[in-house]
Amino acid sequence: MFTEVKKNSQIFQDSNHLLPKSELEVSNIIKEAYKKKLPIDIHGANTKKFIGYNVQAAKSLDLSSLNGIIEYLPEELYIKVKPGTLLEDVETALEKNNQELSFEPTDFGYIKNGKSNKGTVGGCVACNFAGSRRFKSGSVRDFVLGFRGVNGKGDIIKSGGTVVKNVTGYDLSKLVSGSFGTLVALTEITLKISAKKPSQNTIVIYENDPKVISELFQKILSSSNEISGAVFIPDEPQNKKFDLNKSKAFKFNDLDQEGSFFALRVEGDKNSIKERIKDISNELDLKKHKTSNLDPHQSPLFWKSVNSLQLFSETKNNLLRVVVPPANCEKVMNNIKNKFKYFIDWSGSLFWIEVPGKDDDKLKEVKKMILQNNGYLTIIKKSEEFDFSEKIFTIDDTKLMISKKIKESFDPKGIFNPGKMYKDF
Amino acid sequence: MSEIALPKVDRSIVSKKETIVSNLKKFTLKENVLSELDEIKPYETDALAAYKNLPLAVVLPENTEEVSEILKYCHQENIKVIPRGAGTGLSGGALPLNDAIILGLGKFNKILDIDFENKCVVTQPGVTNLSITHAVKHKGYYYAPDPSSQLACSIGGNVAENSGGVHSLKYGTTTNNILGVEMVMMDGTICRLGGKTLDQEGYDLLGLICGSEGLLGVITEVTVKILKNPQTVKAALIGFPTIEDGGNCVTDIISNGIVPAGMEIMDKALIDATEKFVHAGYPMDAEVLMIVELDGTKSEVDELFKQIKEIAEKNKSNSFKLSKSEKERLGFWSGRKAAFPACGAMAPDYYCMDGTIPRGKLSVILKEISRLSKKYNLGVANGFHAGDGNLHPLILFDGSDKEQLRRTEEFGAEILKACVRMGGALSGEHGIGIEKRELMCEAFNDIDIQQQLNIKKCLDEKNLLNPGKVYPILRKCAEEGRVHVHRGEEKFPDLPRF
């Protein structure tokens, strides 16, 4: 033990890029940093590094070597992995047993450099961004059953477990999800997994009117047909880059991508899909609309395109992730239409909006409008001209005060990703 | 009455009772402050009736501002506060302290906003779980978490305990079904966490508060998600000749990608007890009985039951009965829901445990319980939310025999320790409260617990809000951890408990 500590202490002094291979090494490195009060930039595959403020840290703690599936029990519906495990590897392992991560992790690779890269499980949990199935299945945080990690003092801590029902102390799994590595360096994560539905179809509805779109979203939320995806991809504003991305991302035999379109996904066995589509056709009065159907081959690829944000591939502008109560969808749509490139997911709740770089006033204007609509917004990608006095995460003063205290309880010297989420800590 | 260590009583607070009571009356109507023995006696315990203790006083504020003023005052004066909802909790989370006031949320009993467009209901915390569903059912909606006490338990209490129910496997527990809360911190600060949007940004404080057993803040408003009723709901009763066969069938159903809305297992002792009690028509030749419920479209439900029947037959099931009507489906559940009173009729006392285990360990834990039953020479009946791994063994004993009581306590603690050893948890849905407090060190080490205490400290620096609950006082693994019911003295005897 003593030599181990010494060795790690040596690693700590020799290099600024720390690549621990075990939980104990992580703990020893952090103990050393705590002692010296040295800020550390904690990260995995760096696929989402552009989210949040830049971290000024002397040392970078790279968790990507801490990888691998520790335990996968398909019949118990959980998988326990090390944080640096690639999401892709997890999904491949699950696929073999017809299982999946039903929160559909967002792929930020296209935003970064035009290529798919989902990054690591640790990064996914640290950011808590769920894809199209969110409104039906839950967010990343709903699937984190437990974790092990190292706090800012170097102590190894754990919370939760492998079971879905667990009321044993505070639910720290929730707190750690979406904390952007500012509370804990994760060393082990247990995720709840789900059975993959045998088949899926996507109905495309060619519509453009905000009122009609908003009504379609509402009807989907009121349906008992377990619709597991509902998006609107507009054909506006006229913009070459947007059109190009759109035609690349949504190139399917049965999709006419000339204009705007709305799409909904139905999953299940073939008979139940048929039964559901029949019912949905009545609920949504589909006779009135021009529609097409993406078969079980095209449908998964369509949703992959949606969840990898290919519409904003390699964007140089500000990209905003906005969540509003679904009933405010139409108001928000009317506010941004013809002004910005955007699309709507989560059946009317989630907006991805691109705001041009050199225009701080527009950013402020959108922010104000979203807050008026009882929503919140995260500036996911910042343009080169981004004014860093602008808040990246929406937060009110009371919550900021509580968050600061929570941060101190995990990381008393403030050495984990300082300033990543909020300027004060 | 059982004994348990409680935080040291601050005599200086007790001696100031009169001043405190008169000061509390400044913050709310005079009649909302109770201090006479006959007034405060009903608050001496919650549904873990084995433990009783009188509070200094009881205050029943009527709005958030009053709660804030009261907490601010108590914070300044170092007065401990125990928040209380409907008092149906099974782990003693609302047990009073002699130097603490009970802050009852009973007057927060109104639904504030039914928002069908945003698929949510904004409600005060004292509203019962079931009345939320009642308020929206005319339009075909419901609130998913369904703890067995849903008729009486309050939604604020559900948030505090992260209550589950029979349908947690498919629909999650409270934490997965709420969108926001308004909360008052111990120093009187009012804050809003979440709202009508999915998820929240920044630290998931809503997720932290849910299941925090009243230690971090007082919930004064809750926004819950509502869901559309499924098109078809059916249930099947399936009998098995051995525990292994039943356990394997649970595993096989899940392995085949089927997610039942509910999946329950009862052992022979519980089948016999409940059948005698309510005559639900359970197969008496079965060693193990499974109730499986599915929901979805008609063709999907029918197709999946076909598959389940095949899986059950492969696992040597000796009976299979599918509900043909809603009445029959409810009949299937009636026995399961009568588990507590049925056990109450079999022995003078019973202890209800609430551990969770990985589903696949079902037959292992049932065998272990049966071994322990012989070792301690005490009867036990087992009900099990097999879908989500939540086990409720009911240990039968006679509390007037001190020796039996001691054995029961040891028996119960051994079951929970076995759950933790098998990769499960000490509590699935009843919470830790005072009941399983000293067992926390079975699941966590001192460092884990210290981290949790640090969080407590940053939100309640003086440790005044519900002190003595959840975290061990003694720091030793005492033999505790169960619901003790003596000679029908159960609180809320009419509530189904399952």
Describe the protein's architecture and organization.
The complex is a heterodimer of chains A (425) and B (498). By secondary structure, chain A is of the alpha+beta class. Chain A has 2 domains: 1-196 and 395-425, Uridine Diphospho-n-acetylenolpyruvylglucosamine Reductase, domain 3 (2-Layer Sandwich), CATH 3.30.465.10; 198-393, Alpha-Beta Plaits. Chain A has helices at 2-14, 23-36, 87-95, 109-113, 121-127, 134-137, 172-176, 210-221, 240-249, 270-283, 298-307, 329-336, 360-372, 397-410; strands spanning 17-18, 40-43, 59-62, 69-73, 78-81, 99-100, 144-150, 156-160, 185-192, 194-195, 199-206, 229-233, 261-268, 290-294, 318-323, 341-345, 350-355, 376-381. In chain A, the strands form 5 sheets. A 5-stranded antiparallel beta sheet of chain A has the order 4-5-9-7-8. In chain A, α1 (2-14) crosses α2 (23-36) and α8 packs antiparallel against α12 (329-336). The radius of gyration of chain A is 22 Å and the shape is globular. Chain B folds into 4 domains: 11-104, Uridine Diphospho-n-acetylenolpyruvylglucosamine Reductase, domain 2 (2-Layer Sandwich); 111-228, Uridine Diphospho-n-acetylenolpyruvylglucosamine Reductase, domain 3 (2-Layer Sandwich); 232-337, Alpha-Beta Plaits, CATH 3.30.70.3450; 341-486, Alpha-Beta Plaits. Chain B is built from 17 helices and 20 strands. Chain B has helices at 11-15, 17-24, 37-40, 64-77, 129-136, 155-161, 168-171, 205-209, 243-255, 268-278, 298-314, 326-337, 339-344, 362-376, 402-421, 440-443, 446-459, and strands at 33-34, 57-59, 80-84, 100-104, 111-115, 120-123, 141-142, 178-184, 190-194, 218-225, 227-228, 232-240, 262-267, 288-296, 319-322, 349-352, 355-356, 379-385, 390-397, 483-486. In chain B, strands 12, 13, 14, 15, 16, 17, 18, 19 and 20 form a 9-stranded antiparallel beta sheet that branches. A 5-stranded antiparallel beta sheet of chain B has the order 5-6-10-8-9. In chain B, α9 (243-255) crosses α11 (298-314), α9 (243-255) packs antiparallel against α14 and α14 packs antiparallel against α15 (402-421). Residues 476-488 of chain B have low confidence and may be disordered. Chains A and B meet through β8, α7, β10, α10 and α14 of A and β9, α8, α9, α11 and α17 of B.
